[in-house]
Prior knowledge:
mainly beta; 5 strands
Amino acid sequence: xxxxxxxxxxxxxxxxxxxxxxxxxxxxxxxxxxxxxxxxxxxxxxxxxxxxxxxxxxxxxxxxxxxxxxxxxxxxx
Length: 77
């Protein structure tokens, strides 16, 4: 595993759902591996905010990787 998740390297395998400059949200369309557990995830959230609140709408597993300047959050459904 690398130290930093490179979303640009796998961008063609995901669909961009939101990018407001502070938060980026992708849908995984091609079984991209989670940087924490290596299982495919369903959604990927990247944020430079120090804190973030999540509503998972039911039972789901969250994996979180804290990088130097951002949080990488993967939702597994």
